[in-house]
Amino acid sequence: MKKLAALTLFLFVSASIKAQVADPTLPELSWLSGYWTSSENGTEAEELWTNGSGYMMLGIHRDVYANKSASFENLRIVQTKEGIFYIASPGGRPGTTFNMTIISDQKVVFENLENDFPQRIIYFRSGDTLTARIESEAGDKSMEWIWSKTNPKY
């Protein structure tokens, strides 16, 4: 009888966890995955996003400037039972976490109003064009990148 009770409890907990995080592939953000590039004013920009396996998407952003110096940022989107979060680590520094606040067909918004800048990160896609925008809460300070879907060079 104790074994049956333990098995029942295990199945109940497993079903509860699965219900809280229903799909380990983040299907609502699958439109973000791929290799995205742009070239503007001597700066080559690229962003690469993996698929959402294991409740996580991994991303990397790199800018290579005309003088050949570069900057980079490690990125993650993770799904937990508390929600979906974007974690940005510019230059490999410790990550800053942003909560997903809006999601629609091909647009997602993440916010951290306690961060100095940015406070909001927005991605939206139209066809083979992906736009990323970072901005302050008031929207008075912002930066934007527009990329085209590309086949990786590697």
Q: Structural class of the secondary elements?
A: mainly beta
| Rg, alpha carbons | 19 Å
Judging from the principal axes of the Cα atoms, what is the shape? globular
Unreliable sequence segments:
1-21
CATH topology: Lipocalin
List the helices and strands in order.
Answer: HEEEEEEEEEE
- Going by CATH, what is the homologous superfamily? Calycin beta-barrel core domain
Total number of distinct structural domains: 1
Largest sheet, spatial ordering of strands: 1-2-3-4-5-6-7-8-9-10
Binned, the helix content reads 10-25%
Biggest sheet layout? 10 strands, antiparallel, barrel
Mean pLDDT equals 86
CATH architecture: Beta Barrel
Number of strands: 10
Describe the structure.
The chain is mainly beta. It has a single domain (23-150), classed as Lipocalin (Beta Barrel), CATH 2.40.128.20. It has one helix spanning 2-20, and strands at 34-40, 43-49, 56-64, 70-80, 83-90, 96-104, 107-111, 120-126, 129-135, 142-150. The chain has a ten-stranded antiparallel beta barrel. The longest helix has 19 residues, at 2-20.
Question: TL;DR?
Answer:
With 154 residues, the protein is mostly beta strands.
